[in-house]
Amino acid sequence: MSIYDQGLDKCAANYAPLTPSTFLQRAARVYAHRVAVVHGDLERDYASLYSRSRALASALAQQGVGEGDTVSVIAPNTPEMLELHFGVPMSQGVLNTINTRLDPAAVAFMMDFAEAKVLFVDRAYAQLAKDSLTQMKSQPLVIGIDDDLEPEGEVIGEMDYEEFLSTGDPEFDWQEPADEWQAISLNFTSGTTGNPKGVVYHHRGAYLNAMSAIIAFNLGASPSYLWTVPMFHCNGWCCPWAVTAAGGTHVCLRKVDPALIYELINRHSVSHMGGAPTVLNMILNAPETVRRELPAQGVSISTGGAAPPSAVIAGMQKLGFHVAHLYGLTEVYGPSHWCEWQTEWDDLDDRGQMLKMARQGVPCLTINDHCVLNTETGEVVPEDGQTIGELVMRGNTVMKGYLKNPAATEEAFAGGWFHSGDLAVMHPDYYAEIKDRSKDIIISGGENISSLEVEELLYQHPDVMEAAVVARPDDNWGETPCAFVCLKTQSDGSLTETTLIEWCRERMAHFKCPKTVVFGPLPKTSTGKIQKFVLRERAEQLDTL
Amino acid sequence: MSIYDQGLDKCAANYAPLTPSTFLQRAARVYAHRVAVVHGDLERDYASLYSRSRALASALAQQGVGEGDTVSVIAPNTPEMLELHFGVPMSQGVLNTINTRLDPAAVAFMMDFAEAKVLFVDRAYAQLAKDSLTQMKSQPLVIGIDDDLEPEGEVIGEMDYEEFLSTGDPEFDWQEPADEWQAISLNFTSGTTGNPKGVVYHHRGAYLNAMSAIIAFNLGASPSYLWTVPMFHCNGWCCPWAVTAAGGTHVCLRKVDPALIYELINRHSVSHMGGAPTVLNMILNAPETVRRELPAQGVSISTGGAAPPSAVIAGMQKLGFHVAHLYGLTEVYGPSHWCEWQTEWDDLDDRGQMLKMARQGVPCLTINDHCVLNTETGEVVPEDGQTIGELVMRGNTVMKGYLKNPAATEEAFAGGWFHSGDLAVMHPDYYAEIKDRSKDIIISGGENISSLEVEELLYQHPDVMEAAVVARPDDNWGETPCAFVCLKTQSDGSLTETTLIEWCRERMAHFKCPKTVVFGPLPKTSTGKIQKFVLRERAEQLDTL
Asked: Which of B344, B368, B413 lies closest to A22 in CB terms?
């Protein structure tokens, strides 16, 4: 034993399990009277957010919630949802936020699987909750959430949220988890096939990811954060914790509505927000009448999911938004990568800058490494920006694993890497670029076609608002690219399948161009992702017509 | 066992011991060709800093350095010193940086106590090293560091640094520590009485403190950091690691010289730096001829140690420096507190703002709590900004403990708090304000007098450049305040002991005013702190004259 291991143990003075709950405790002292939460005309300061969260933790503890007990919630981005991100962990429980757009069967499956003890339901989702509860094997305690901003639905359950809070002690002496590896939340993957998997986060990872997010998003002192990213999606990329650590203001938002977004940005001098590329699209294509002036310093907007088409990035920059491109998955607490700007890119022309920015980027500080592996051999592929393989990563902000699914956990962590399931290339500068979700690659006549690449081109057409490309079965080629396209409202309607395909063929290798084009609105998930599995089904049905 | 503890263990994909070495690994990939280090005309990029640090780790490992082995260094802020902050931890060794202004007896004591296996010595300190080695019981391997910017001294030892590096493998497969609680460095306190104590840092704390420093200093993307704070002082407040994590440029500096500081700020567009209040004083009082234009965005300067007199803060702001006030100790990895600016202070007048800024402030994100305890009863004092007690804190960036000194460790951590030994008041807004080091308080006629308060007043006198106040034994009062004052060079020499005391009595309670004033230069430590123990001795001798 070395001299440095003798009499130098952990004690209460020099060690505490990492937990993001401490960020709120600190904020309540350092920023006691700063506005923590805004919702419509309601404003609460950090002292109030903390005492309400403590009362919530206390009320939960009185109901028997403790370590490893699941507390589910079906709600949009309201003050109650934010409080649950602190109150549940402070009670030692596990927060399970549920996607509000799911069907009752899926919600019932999740809550049974998670053995939910308590369910919080916003009034807008009363019917979904009731239908889910009738399908469940066990019955959690139900607490309804009322909201002045929501006229629809009924407040269901044993009691409403405010009554429940009044049963708790606002000075509750909450405890840190005994072990920072203890679970803090459960997020189900959107799972397009089979049952969704339950991704488990721990206190340590949530703490570290929040620190990393402050740095990556450059939140600075007292940011104003607009809640466009659903908190039920990877716990809102851990921003309930990060924004609180930075002493920022949480600007709540029930619905992603461009008019409301512009109004809130203007009214609350929003400095930071996030969203899927479709959210950017919505902001970009909002009618002139709902647009409002942005704060002088502009608004930083981080966009995840698929790479935003370069035309969208350029349009947003013109409006005064600073677009940062992120990449992540539920399994890595939200964003694991960001396309960090390099000073030498300042000298590139617009097109050169867009090509750099279209890449998913480099791992954040808490992800120790990433690489691209050949999907057949498992070998690391050359860093040439060309060779496609699976993007893998490892580090302290990778999930604990999948709940009650050791086989899936083992598969995801095979070889000491987390396997993203996304196909990517590695550039010589360590920037990863996603070429496709494994299932989104189109194999036509033995050639791999990146559906993202075809979409990127389609977005450059002046009449195209949104586009998604999937494989359509073909007897001759195996598969061919099939494009689903939603046109801008102001387009003159002259664009046809033939003229759009011709336009593509002038700009891209012919084998990559869509063979079929279908016009109309695109189906989306609650987080704004285009539902490609729905489009794939449609493309298959086209074949049988 | 809860469902969240089954099949959800740590593995290579989702867990890695926290260590700041990973920041350099990442920087070498993400910022490969960005300038990492500047020293005179020398520039090295991150790829080079990483490969040199790996070669260093490899060379050390070949010499048998491993977990718990001490590697000492006597050097100023040079590229080699920076490399040692990565190479030693990557070898699993413990970095022991030694204050270059100590005498050979103290240095010999430290190295024997730490059982140093290797000693790196910059040529300027060859004589100090030789004298120390002759007094040591054991003999470490000595490696000399040459430096083109240093004409003095000789390069001593078995071989020089570059030769030593050439024995190592620049692609060395270094390992993270098996446990993040493993020691990373050893910093001796400046200890004014008795033998210095060896403060042990661990990898986890260094990692977390670096993250916290990026946020507290608001380093942003690619900062340019001027090395005015000695790296042998709390490992340069953990900035070797923080600046690297942020992909910044380390601008090296052998000596704190105002002309050189202005030149480097101008030449390398320095964005951030730190320093004791005396460094600020030096910059402020530098002759016009050596002053250079600052970068347009100004320079953020963090100042620790004693609270900077408000006149100094105001003067620096006028020059274009943004002054942040920090507080910390060796035992807490450097700064544990910073005087975080509150937006409502924008509305205060200059004097009001200065009063707020003069306070040491709130704990950083990685310190979980702080309070002020009554030194007699151990009870928490009222948060009234009036009641003096000892400032205590706890969290993950508190040292492992004192090396080979369990009694001192236990005393420092008594009651689950780290005891700072500093006397402070707690304001109602959770900001701590240091009133004095315990030993610096003056007790006169039963009244406690804060020497800092008297100094603060003296600094407001237009002719005073520096002032320090200590207790002078007095038969009648017990103690009286004795002021040591260094006048500005441009003062006309008309100020006398009597007129200065009179000036004080017009502005402060009479019992607090100096009873004695001694004019002349003040003795300082290598880190620019005024050596009050020397002044206390002088004050005692005055009594016997």
From this structure: B368
A residues 494-513 lying closer than 8 A (beta carbon) to B: none
Average pLDDT over residues B517-529: 83
First-to-final CA distance of chain B: 75
Domain A442-544 has CATH 3.30.300.30: yes
More confident residue, B311 or A331: A331
Q: Would the CB atoms of A401 and B14 count as touching at under 8 Å?
A: yes
- Chain A contact present for B300, CB below 8 A: no
Question: Start-end ranges of CATH 3.30.300.30 in chain A?
Answer: 442-544
Q: What is the largest CA-CA distance in chain B?
A: 80
- Which residue intervals of chain B bear CATH 3.40.50.12780? 46-203, 256-438
B174–chain A nearest CA distance, Å: 14
| Residue B67 at interface with chain A, using a CB cutoff of 8 Å | yes
3-state secondary structure A444-478: ECCEEECHHHHHHHHHCCCCEEEEEEEEEEECCCE
Q: What is the DSSP string of B189-202?
A: ---SSSSPPEEEEE
Write out the residue limits of the CATH 3.40.50.12780 domain(s) in chain A: 256-438
Question: What was the ipTM of the complex prediction?
Answer: 0.88
Q: Do A396 and B10 touch (CB under 8 A)?
A: no
**Which of A12, A200, A245 lies closest to B365 in CB terms?**
A245
Give the CATH class of B441-544.
alpha beta
Minimum mean pLDDT among A92-96, B33-37, B105-109, B369-373: which range?
B105-109
Per the CB < 8 Å rule, is A394 touching B12? yes
pLDDT band at B201; cut points 50, 70, 90: very high
**Residue A309: HSE in the Cβ half-sphere, 13 Å Cα cutoff:** 25
Cα A378 to its chain centre, rounded Å, is 28
According to CATH, the topology of domain B256-438 is Rossmann fold (3.40.50)
Considering only CA atoms, which of B458, B2, B511, B508 is closest in space to residue A181? B2
B247-267, pLDDT tens digit by residue? 999 999 999 999 999 999 999
pLDDT band, very low/low/confident/very high, at B481 (cuts 50, 70, 90): very high
Looking at residue B275, what is its pLDDT?
87
Please name the helix (run of DSSP H) or strand (run of DSSP E) that holds residue B543, with its range, or none: helix B532-544
Q: What is the mean pLDDT of chain B?
A: 92
Q: Which residues on chain B are in Cβ contact (under 8 Å) with A181?
A: 10
Size of interface A-B (CB pairs under 8 A): 183
CB contact under 8 A, B394 and A13: yes
Q: Using a CB cutoff of 8 Å and minimum separation of 24, what contacts does A457-460 make?
A: A457/A504, A457/A507, A457/A508, A458/A483, A458/A485, A458/A500, A458/A504, A458/A514, A459/A309, A459/A310, A459/A311, A459/A312, A460/A309, A460/A310, A460/A311, A460/A507
- The tens digit of pLDDT for each residue in A275-289 reads 887 789 889 999 999
Q: Give the CATH number of domain B46-203.
A: 3.40.50.12780
| DSSP run (H or E) holding B435 | strand B432-437
Nearest 5°: phi and psi at A312?
A: -70, -45
CB B212 within 8 A of CB B397: yes
Point out the residues of chain A with pLDDT beneath 50: 191-193, 545
Q: Does A42 touch chain B (CB under 8 A)?
A: no
Overall fold of domain A44-170+179-201: Rossmann fold (3.40.50)
Give the integer Cα–Cα distance in Å for B451 and B468. Answer: 8
Most confidently modeled of A184-198, B391-405, B476-490?
B391-405
pLDDT band of B281, cuts 50, 70, 90 = confident
Q: Is B46 on the interface with A (CB under 8 A)?
A: no
Residue-level pLDDT at A443? 77
| B363 near A CB under 8 A | yes
Query: So what's the pLDDT on residue A194?
Result: 57
